[in-house]
Amino acid sequence: MCNHLLRGGLALVALAGLVAAAHAAPFTATGQVDRSSEVVHGNIVTGKIVGGQATQLGAWTGSFRNRFTNVVEGSIRMVAASGEILDVALVLTFDRQAGVYVGPFNIVAGTGRFAQATGGGTLIAVPQTNAGVVLKFDGAISY
């Protein structure tokens, strides 16, 4: 009897691992910062992101809150058309040669099917002349 319980328990643990692994996937996204929405409070900038597209979210809009010092530290909230949310933390530095901000992003929270989401990768923010900033995410997500 004890052997059957042990084998059954091990099978459940193995199955749980397979289910968790089934939701690991590459994560790519793009977005456009709406420069007209930016509000500056000292070195804190908040604003809206429009026209986004992400592999798991589909079309998304969002908002950001960043602190500008020698680096950009902040967060982005991605809101899918379904209402599901992914919260992302970021730390970017300016690459003078390339003319872009680049650094890691981490998925720190979510709602709906992304409630237990984790992951991250690289975020590149490309300033556009008179047109805002284009965001490019490249990484992985588990949910």
Task: Summarize the structure in words.
- This protein is mainly β and 143 residues long.
- The chain has a single domain, classed as AOC barrel-like, CATH 2.40.350.
- It contains 1 helix and 8 strands, in the order αββββββββ.
- Strands 1-2-3-4-5-6-7-8 form an 8-stranded antiparallel beta barrel.
- The model is unreliable at 1-21 (pLDDT under 50).
SSE blueprint:
Layout: H1 2-22, E1 24-41, E2 44-54, E3 58-68, E4 72-80, E5 85-95, E6 100-110, E7 118-128, E8 132-142
Antiparallel strand pairs: 1-2, 1-8, 2-3, 3-4, 4-5, 5-6, 6-7, 7-8
Tally of helical segments = 1
- Estimate the mean pLDDT confidence: 85
Fold-level CATH name: AOC barrel-like
Terminal Cα separation, in Å?
35 Å
Strand order of the largest sheet: 1-2-3-4-5-6-7-8
Q: Determine and state the CATH class.
A: Mainly Beta
Write down the oligomeric state.
Answer: single chain
Q: Which series of helices and strands comes N to C?
A: HEEEEEEEE
Please give a handful of descriptors for the protein shown:
single chain; 143 residues; mainly beta; AOC barrel-like; eight-stranded antiparallel barrel; 1 helix; 65% strand
